[in-house]
Amino acid sequence: KYKMILDLDTGIDDALAIAYALATPEADLIGIIGSYGNVVTERGVQNSLDLLELLGHPEVPVYLGAQHSSTTDHFDVMPVSAQIHGVNGVGEVELKTADRQLEAGSGVDFLVAAAHKYQQDLILVPTGPMTNLAAALDQDPAIADLIGNVTFMGGALTVPGNVTPVTEANINQDPEAADRVLRSSLPLTMVGLDVTTRTLLTTKETQSWRDLHTTAGEKYADIVDFYIDAYKVTSPHLGGCALHDPLAVAVAVEQSLVSTIYLNMKVDTEAPFAGRTIGDETRINDPATQTQVAVNVDKDRFVAEFMTKLTELFKN
Ligand code: BDR
Ligand code: CA
Do 91 and 12 contact (CB within 8 A), yes or no? Predict the structure, then answer.
């Protein structure tokens, strides 16, 4: 059985990634590392603790991770993040505060130790910036050849970005860290906007959670409705909200949900394209560092599985 670690900037689709991971029997969720992005790190880890409690899994450890990018010493939430995820990251919905604390120790140390302990059985799913993973690689480069798979939500190869015309939000937060990861020999799968903006949810689905009349069903329905309303303003052409982060969790254990191409990727770190994920012409033939880039998704199968899994989880 796989051991899964999530690295999250817990906003709304990260909250859905937690639920999807808990409802996935192929993997044990052994820990969550916090990152900055949709919210500041302290807020994100509190959201993770509170959501785990809501979902009846207070045993999953949560660790503090990076609080800003690898090249800055400060992080400010972008106004658009508050618009999409709410100022508190969970659509201004009030959750019961978990009655436990973060684990002692850093998320990066936890990741390095888990890589040595579980090796090929370890799956890492970053759905925020890559700052923690890049720091772990710097701390112990050997982990690149230990970890079984890293399936990350980030980047855009065949479609425009969502922060600038060429950059996706997670990669945009820390292009240097993402570039470090993409040039490493880690076995990587990229689940970018190419596929995540094709997997959508509407209020029809969230209403079915509310109709379960459980606290988890009702809270998640309220949280995701905020996100659906925000998408009506920011991306009205989509007709729903994008299931970015849960798709990455799904692909991590079930790669047949997407079709991929093998490509050596890089991230531009300098203007005018800083944060762009694109094929690296200088490593075009290097077999050691290829990423599997998802370019198509069986969206009906994914959304059906997503609904089956989350509905079952929210029932209890
Ligand atoms: C990604 O950015 C964050 O806002 C979301 O949680 C997702 O991980 C989408 O670009
Ligand atoms: Ca995220």
Answer: yes
